[in-house]
Amino acid sequence: MKRPILIHPDPRLKKVAAPVADLSDELRKLSRDMLETMYDAPGIGLAAPQIGVMDRLIVLDCAGEEAPPAPLVMFNPEVILSSDDKNTHEEGCLSIPDQFADVTRPAEVRVAWVDANGNPQEKEFDGLWATCVQHEIDHLNGKLFIDYLKPLKRQMITRKMQKLKRELARA
Ligand code: NI
Fold first, then answer.
1. How far apart are CA 146 and CA 154, in angstroms?
2. Any idea which residues carry the catalytic annotation?
3. Which of 12, 32, 48, 128 has its CA at 20 to 30 Å from residue 39's CA atom?
4. Are 7 and 164 in contact (CB under 8 A)?
């Protein structure tokens, strides 16, 4: 089932999400709904707070349209190691539609998480995957990619989003 995606600014996008204690069927269903919502958007990552659920859960698939789907479901994801090397990627966000900006982040990260079967996992990510997983984990800490931008640029984007939300509310 597809879920509506919150649009910035929204207080729920600024909150810290709570760790998941027990993997219930309900949470597994939620992760499937999030993947469906992400693929439909279409996007390459989605965090639970973006659909108003304040749990530490993200989904991502950065394989690209040419490759077979490679969905990842991560409960309680955590960056445990970051490279000194940085990478700059143009980022966007399903909660900030049609806005893009360069963000510099560690080029490689090692991430630990719990998968949908409740098993602990650990893996290194680079390239687009590294950018995406860091962007999604930021969502769990109430941080958006525009928070890395200069205040003026951030305010400009926020005003555009306020206007978009007014238009959507009228429609
Ligand atoms: Ni995002």
1. 6
2. 136
3. 12
4. yes
- Ligand 1: distance of its center to the CA of 131 in Å? 11
pLDDT per position in the chain (171 positions), as tens?
999 999 999 999 999 999 999 999 999 999 999 999 999 999 999 999 999 999 999 999 999 988 999 999 999 999 999 999 999 999 999 999 999 999 999 999 999 999 999 999 999 999 999 999 999 999 999 999 999 999 999 999 999 999 999 999 998
pTM: 0.97
- Dist CA 23 CA 159 (whole Å): 38
Which stretch of DSSP H or E encloses residue 62? Answer: none
Rounded Cα distance between 73 and 7, Å, is: 22
Lookup result for tokens 């009228």:
170
Ligand 1 centre to CA of 144 (Å) is 7
Centre of ligand 1 to C-alpha 139, Å, is 7
Q: What does the radius of gyration of the chain's CA atoms come to, in whole angstroms?
A: 16
Dist. CA 67 → ligand 1 center (Å)? 22
